[in-house]
Amino acid sequence: MQKEKKVQFLKDPHNSYRSLVRSFGNNFTKNQRRDIRKAFVYASEAHNGIKRKSGEPYILHPLAVARIVSKEMGLDSVSIIGALLHDVVEDTEFTVKDIEKEFGKKVAKIIDGLTKIAEVFDQNVSLQQENFRKMLLTLSDDIRVILIKIADRLHNMRTLSSMSKKKQLKISSETLFLYAPLAHRLGLYSIKTELEDLSLKFTKPEIYKAISLKLNETKIERNKFINKFSVPIRESLRNEKISFEIKGRPKSIFSIRNKMFEKGIKFDDIYDKFAIRIIVDTKSLNEKSDCWKVYSIVTDYYKPNPDRLRDWISTPKANGYESLHTTVMGDDGKWVEVQIRSKRMDEIAEKGYAAHWKYKLKDNKESSIDNWIKNVRELLENPNSSAIDFIDDFKLNLYTGEIYVFTPAGELRTLPKSSTALDFAFDIHTEIGLKCMGAKVNGRLVALSKQLNSGDQVEIITSNKQKPRKDWLRFVVTSVAKSKIKNALKEEKKLIAKDGKESIERKLRHLKIKLNNKVETEMIKFFQLSSSLDLYFQIGVGAIDNKQIKDFVNLRGTGWYQTIRNKFNSKNFSKRKNNSNKIIVFGDNSEILDYKLSNCCNPIADDEIFAFTTVEDGIKIHRNDCPNAIQMRSNFAYRILDAKWVNKDKIDFIATILVEGIDSLGITNKITQIISNQMNVNIKSININSEGGIFNGKISLQVHNVNFLDSLTNKLEKIEGLSSIKRTYDHE
């Protein structure tokens, strides 16, 4: 009975609204509360009669988003109003002007940024990417747009189970590809973690469930251990009259899965599952010294791992994150990660940019996160980049680690890990980057591609004669540098293309042909280029010579172009006449189409798969866990086709496994005996190396399906000394 009451409470908009009001306590004035109430009524009327996929009234969604914005992000009344109204323009007849009339320009600007683009784009451009770019355009005016969008995505992920499997995969992929990294970059760590975990829940449900069960099974043990671990620390902190709070910090399911996958280890072998956070309530002037005092107390009782000390108090992360991290050896030989921070630092870590902004208003200092936002604005202002190019550049520096580098004057600059001297030059100023011809690192002359380390002092050497080169794109890592180089190269390309166009106009005129759109299109197809810019550039640099132009003119009118046009305009893929050899069908109607198995993940029968329609190479089959799957589902969801296996026993596949273990006499023979004799599997190639008592090998096998491969793996696992067996994507 109690459960039914709870469900009813959740489905009642007025109860949900009261829950929202309780979340912001006494933070708002009477007028602000009135405006929030007005927005709730407005949104309720706009969404009246509309239901979500779950069957619930739609208004529950904006109410939930508003509560996340209020309680989990700690944003202001304008943000809460924006959250309540965020779908009104997109899903109802109301316009941005209507919003502006009722709630003012600030709210209207936020809603406009959150409203999806309605125009029809070229099919090669991802609509999702354009929506995301539009949203980020408002960043120059109001970062609350981004924060509300993340809150919106978080609630959608929390309620994703009501969607179809296809939708779940698409939305989860988008979340992993963009929204989780963005939350990370804005310092919303708890939200970032939840987004990652929920994405894993829908993209790899079996793995998520297995790790979740393991965490639940070990919860009591972990809590008992942490409580025991904390006893001497608590006692010492009280003796030192330090006001503190100690929390357990369980590892996220997503991070555990990544460690298991990347290192090829089992759940029980992850050494830092145990973690605590010590939060010190102290004055801002004493934050640093008090945190180090706590560190000293912790290391008095437990031996620290010197390689695992991270001081983000002295040098905060680029997103404003401040904390002192260390990993110490606890009882029973268990490693424990200890995070030490002040109450202010903890609020910034939990609520990200919102909290950062609140504290910034007090001291008015410009932080590294402000610099990052400036860089994003620069990317957005680039008129030549496509939506997808922009997202690729933008995403480059969302998740990366950081290094700290000094200018000759001693100014500290924060850069992504693996940044080069040229990245540093562009970080100083665009013009310095474009004219950079060399650099001195710690007084020594180095190449522009030289990767920098924390603590380096860098001096940039420039020349007015220097021009950006295409090979620079091979080694720069920052989004700003890549964007500026691409922009400069494109401008130079345009100048060359202009000369090329004038040249071809003259040459065709001599051959009695007028250059128009039709002739231009024919030439692009004939020379197998992608655009008119490429065509005229190739002519401008001499890559297309007079003989090739004459060949084009001579073949024109022979019917070749009509054949090419028909081929490119065909919307349907050809079907094989002999369907008996087909092992994959598409869609609910089991349609038989031509396809190829992708080389990036090498699917075999019974792998969970999807089909991706390429521009030039037809349909490609990929595994659901393909390294490129997230990007494809996120950027090009409209090209995804459902696919399933049929007649799968009629063909063999190549699968590759990686083996690792303790080297011993005859272990290679044991492996091959099981593969060849017991399982009757044909070995296509085998490469085993041994060094320092450890062996590792790569074995390519001819197998029927995944189940067969799993059976083989289970038998191999019984070999003494064999510690790791995992399937790899590539094979030779």
CATH superfamily of the largest domain: Hypothetical protein af1432
- Could you estimate the helical fraction of the residues in percent? 40-55%
Q: Give the low-pLDDT segments.
A: 1-10, 117-125, 563-580
- Cα separation of the termini: 61 Å
How large is the count of helical segments? Answer: 30
Mean pLDDT: 80
CATH topology of the largest domain: Hypothetical protein af1432
State the total count of DSSP E strands.
20
The description of the largest β-sheet is: 6 strands, mixed
Give a nutshell description of this structure.
With 732 residues, this protein is α+β, with helices and mostly antiparallel strands.
Task: Describe the overall structure.
Helix content is 49%, strand content 15%. A hairpin with a 2-residue loop joins strand 9 and strand 10. Strands 1, 2, 3, 4, 5 and 6 form a 6-stranded mixed sheet that branches. The protein has a 5-stranded mixed sheet with strand order 12-16-14-15-13. Strands 18-19-17-20 form a 4-stranded antiparallel sheet. The N terminus is likely disordered. It has 6 domains: 187 residues, Hypothetical protein af1432, CATH 1.10.3210.10; 139 residues, 2-Layer Sandwich (Beta Polymerase, domain 2), CATH 3.30.460.10; 111 residues, Ubiquitin-like (UB roll) (Roll); 76 residues, no CATH class; 72 residues, no CATH class; 76 residues, ACT domain (Alpha-Beta Plaits). The chain is globular and about 95 Å long. The protein has 732 residues and is of the alpha+beta class.
